[in-house]
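Final report, Chapter 2: Outcomes

The project's central promise was a pipeline that accepts a single protein chain and returns its three-dimensional structure in a standardized token representation, suitable for archiving and comparison. That pipeline is now operational. To close this chapter, we reproduce one record exactly as it appears in the project archive, with the input sequence first and the structure output second.
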Amino acid sequence: MKKLYRALVYILPAVLFFSYHPVISLGQTESMYLELSIPLIWLVLFDGVSFVQFVKERPKLNKNLLYLLPFLVFLAASILWSPNKLRAILTVGMFILIVFAILSLIFLKKNLDNKLLVKIFLGSTIFVCAWCWLQSLIDLLGVGREVSLMCVGCTSEMFGFPHPNGFAIEPQFMGNLLLAPALYIIYMLVKKPSKKLYLLGFFVLATLFLTFSRGAIYSFAAALFFMLVALGIKKKSWKCLKTIPLVLVAFLFTLNAQGIFAAASKTNDTYFSGISKSLNQLSLGIIDISEKPSAPEPAPQEEPTKTQAPESAFDGYVEESTNTRLRLSDQAVKIWQQDAGTMLVGVGVGGAGTKLYENGYSASPREIVQNEIFELLLELGLIGCALLIPAAVLIFKETKKNKSNIFLFSLYIAFGLSFMFFSGLPNALHIFLLPALMKTKDDIITL
């Protein structure tokens, strides 16, 4: 059993990348899809094995872990007033499994081969990044989505160039999965620079930008800024800033790749239009270098026989994408403010989508707030969120091995900010499990 436990820990970094593909469909209800992914199967198996190991080893737990109980009790109790009982029960069950897995990684993970873990972590990252670029090329060749695994809104028909989702449900989650390896590599470049790390960092960063996920890219930028400033202050040296050109070169490379992809796609886009759309979307419409339409020329007397290439769905910044997130967050707050009871205890875990639908704010009860912070406020209220804060701080303290853990804190910043761009527990297990897997020793990062 101990060997199985160790094997499950070793494969975790690779498993997390397959957050949606392949997926086992178990059907659907009016308010949710019932699906099993590889990480979910891993989680159930790992907790089962961990329970046996806890019974055998009986590790000494920190008494402060008792502070987790009030939140877990409140979370379970909120099932009673949730309008979506099935989703509530499944969410609570999954959250308990996640918490137990975190505790297992903290208190049972001993005498592991850190070099092997690093190889699996970085090796699986390289594999998935390579798949993202291949996935984009497959899409440009016109291969169907059943082969490319592209999500509906990821194909080159949208912007003229594809933005891959890898084995995740959408690019937002694929980009989010690359936050940890991207920050890890840059941290190690500051500590132990090498040509191999620079090449690996370039490849991972270029793929992160290729996902075209604003949430992931913004979160990475904020976390990177904190990391470099913290390292500079601590070491009283700003040599860490030498990694910035790597980030810029990777971004420019991907920007040019998007232009080339746009020119090669079946849409009427060009190299320049691909670049201009990318900059326009990433800057929320601030940077606009698109060619302005000129006065129409007289129509030719003879119509061309060549079939015109189709236009891509978007010609620049998709304001609706931002507005939808803001609208759902605003509507979640409005529902939360409806009465004192809701403000205090929320609508119940798993009930956000149902309440949005019942109040006429969405077309389906399957809708999510797309902002985990506001979704938690709506579902758990002030009391639930207040109980969650000390529980989250406690988990952070348990995963933090020393006061100089700059990398881990940067990772928490990246993951924390990314919660503002999506909600969806099953597809984001890496946010909870990776920090528990990582540790520092003598300020040198290992896994």
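Archive annotation: The longest strand covers residues 23-28.
This record, like all others produced under the grant, will remain available to the consortium after the project formally closes.
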